[in-house]
Amino acid sequence: MAVLGPPCVMLAEEGIGQPIHVRFPPHFIRVGNNAPAHGILHEQLGHVDANGVIQTKGRTACEINTANELVVVELIFIGVFNDLSVEQCMALLSCLVFDERVDDDEPTQGLKSYLTNPFYKLQECARTVAKAMIACKIELDEDEFVGKINPGL
Prior knowledge:
Elements: E1 9-13, E2 20-23, H1 35-44, H2 56-63, H3 69-77, H4 86-97, H5 113-135, H6 142-147
Antiparallel strand pairs: 1-2
């Protein structure tokens, strides 16, 4: 799983109303050792623009330091949490940190009905991130990546 460090470090500010150029810490969202692929991945996911300027989505990713940061940022920016109660949000986020394996063919089998749709959205976000990582030549098994999301807690 990717690990984030401290918040992003600002390199320079061009002036009021101009973009702030930011560099990610060396250990920011590293999966493997392919640094160029990570730059492409962050651009593809909308964390930085084509000029390397960090976007709001990238700044948010810098602040998340648990679970799978890339998936959590996707959940935030597509608005999954907007219509959920606090309890539903906590249940959904617990799926990202609970790593005890469950051998069920259908992971949603024990979920309450009001958690099933958010869980499917979580899996969809994880699949989107996995596909972006694979497209950037980061070695990853998409089904295994999505399968690590466990609603068993």
